[in-house]
Amino acid sequence: MIKNKYYPYILLFSSMFFFLPFLGKVHLFDWDEINFAESAREMIVSGNYSRVQIDFKPFWEKPPLFFWMQALCMQLFDVTDFAARLPNAIMGIISILSFYFIGKKLKDATFGFIWALSYMGSFLPHLYFKSGIIDPTFNYFIFISLYLLYLSTAVEKENKSRGYAILGGIALGLATLTKGPVGILIISITFLVYWISIRFRKFTSMMNITLFVFSLIIISSLWFGLEIIKNGPWFISEFFKYQVNLLLTPVAGHQQPFYYHFIVIFLGCFPISIWALPALFKGKLASSNNDVFHKLMFILFWVVMILFSIVKTKIVHYSSLSYFPLSFLAATVIYNIINKTIEIKKYLIWLLALVGIVFSILLILVPLIAEYKDFIIPFIKDKFAVACLYSRVEWSGNEFLIGTFYLVFLVISISKILRGKTFFGVALMLYSTAFCMFIYLAAVVPKIEKYSQASAINFYQSLSGKDVYVVPVGFKSYAQYYYFKKQPNQRKEADSEDWLINGSIDKPAYFVVKITNKDYFDSKPDCKFLKQDGGFLFYKRSPAKH
């Protein structure tokens, strides 16, 4: 077994190795990744860092903190996909080390190591730290706020307790500046449920609560307050209206069933979703049934899952905050098995094997299906999907080996666990998952992306810097802003798709259309067909000669 003193260095090196390389290997994905990166780019172009914009118009879906982080990285490394994803990669390294040191303080170094490794070695938690979406950063601030609040109730010294309360409020304020007031709602519900569970007994002082709320307001006001003072309440009012509508009204394309997030977590967070099962439904484990932090993690998981199952709009990353308590609960189960305070249940082994085999088969099949697409195309009815599959993508023929090797290491890790070598078996399973994700994201995902959006993005990039209009027609996208590097102060008429297609334009206009909308442009003789690439058609309309 590795000596405890090496754990933080192993985790630091591992997280840097897994999260930093190949961040720019594949284009940002529509909508969220490109949307957020575009907001950061427009801050740099316009010089307006106080208000979030898209297409240089007010964008009230998110506060600005994450975009400030992206803009800073873009200032350092240029406006690139690498820079857009770098903030989350850095937050990933910070999160992994935080799990270790918090776990070490709660129990010991072995628990901290298992907890950190559990997060790094699971599919969706690992993937999100290599993305350009807001949630990983937002989730970390929420988690740290909750932990600091826990510390404020756990320490006996009054000054120290108040200090933790202030820091907890600051962390929640940063979360609010990252994604809005939903973080306040989650923390409030979590502690309300905890208070009910202890039968309304006092768990902290009113002074701590006051300091927590005061520091939260101060940090949140650094943007919300200054925006109201500077520009009046209309922007903030629209921001809150949007947040409420998002909770109460389903966004088109995101009306999923109630159980949606449970399936996402069970499959997407393999293997920790399996390991955590004994702790998710019993709510306690040997040596931890009286642990306040354990109870808070248990409550946080179920608050997130139930809240975002009730919310009308269901998007995969809405439940990503649950990854934090899920990894803690999984680590608790593993830790107790290693220390022989509980026995490993047979159903865990069967589920690990079953879900692991399914994942391995999917990883094997994806590149094979893409490479031998002619066998499945006759069964696909979507013309756009069929056309995308005909995109020119070069496969080496060896990509399926990634899933094959993952299956082999999974079998070895389970066999080690069955032989009583739990620590080694679990570490092998988690590192195998991390390596699988690392290689797959570098070798397979860029090829898959070429079938979906790459041809449109390459077209936008080819027009970057030219004095033209470029718009997608018939589908929503943010890629034309970011990859074309659209500049401000264009004619107001250019906001109208009809004007660009039929009006008296002053410079060339380029259109990107899905093949399913070909008939519409067939009736527009002014629009010259340029080419087809995958599932996209490209047209150009020139201004009339006088």
Explain what the structure shows.
It is a single chain. The chain is mainly α. Helices cover 63% and strands 5% of the residues. It contains 26 helices and six strands. The chain has helices at 7-19, 32-46, 65-77, 81-106, 109-120, 123-128, 135-154, 158-179, 182-197, 206-221, 224-231, 234-248, 260-268, 272-275, 277-282, 292-310, 323-338, 346-371, 383-389, 400-418, 422-443, 445-452, 454-463, 479-484, 497-502, 518-522; strands at 53-54, 57-58, 469-473, 509-514, 527-533, 536-541. The chain has a four-stranded mixed beta sheet. It has a two-stranded antiparallel ribbon with strand order 1-2. The longest helix is centred in the N-terminal third of the chain and has 26 residues, at 81-106. The chain is globular and about 80 Å long. The termini are far apart. The mean pLDDT is 88.
Itemize the secondary structure elements and their pairings.
Layout: H1 7-19, H2 32-46, E1 53-54, E2 57-58, H3 65-77, H4 81-106, H5 109-120, H6 123-128, H7 135-154, H8 158-179, H9 182-197, H10 206-221, H11 224-231, H12 234-248, H13 260-268, H14 272-275, H15 277-282, H16 292-310, H17 323-338, H18 346-371, H19 383-389, H20 400-418, H21 422-443, H22 445-452, H23 454-463, E3 469-473, H24 479-484, H25 497-502, E4 509-514, H26 518-522, E5 527-533, E6 536-541
Parallel strand pairs: 3-4
Antiparallel strand pairs: 1-2, 4-6, 5-6
Helix pairs in contact: 1-4, 1-5, 2-3, 3-4, 4-5, 5-17, 5-21, 7-8, 8-9, 8-10, 9-16, 16-17, 18-20, 20-21
